[in-house]
Design a protein that fits this description.
CATH architecture: 2-Layer Sandwich
CATH topology: Ribosomal Protein L30, Chain: A
Order of helices and strands: EHEHE
Oligomer: single chain
Low-confidence stretches: none
CATH superfamily: Ribosomal protein L30/L7
Shape: globular
Number of helices: 2
Length: 62
């Protein structure tokens, strides 16, 4: 079985003043600071969180 693909997600805008659910999505992705980059698995759950906060993050394939 092939390894699932991974995505590199970087927080490029502040979470301050955002909707509570959007802050929760950013935290769920493991992001805390601006310009922090994390690697997450490419799952429908993670894609949904990324889509919701797409205006705060940048994404590239790892």
């Amino acid at each position: 079985m092939a390894n699932p693909k991974e995505l590199k997600v970087t927080l490029v805008k502040s979470r301050h003043g955002r909707l509570k659910s959007h802050k929760a999505c950013v935290a769920g992705l493991g992001l805390r600071k601006i310009n922090q980059t994390v690697t997450v698995k490419d799952t429908p759950e993670n894609r949904g969180m990324i889509n919701r906060v797409s205006y705060l993050v940048s994404v590239e394939e790892a």
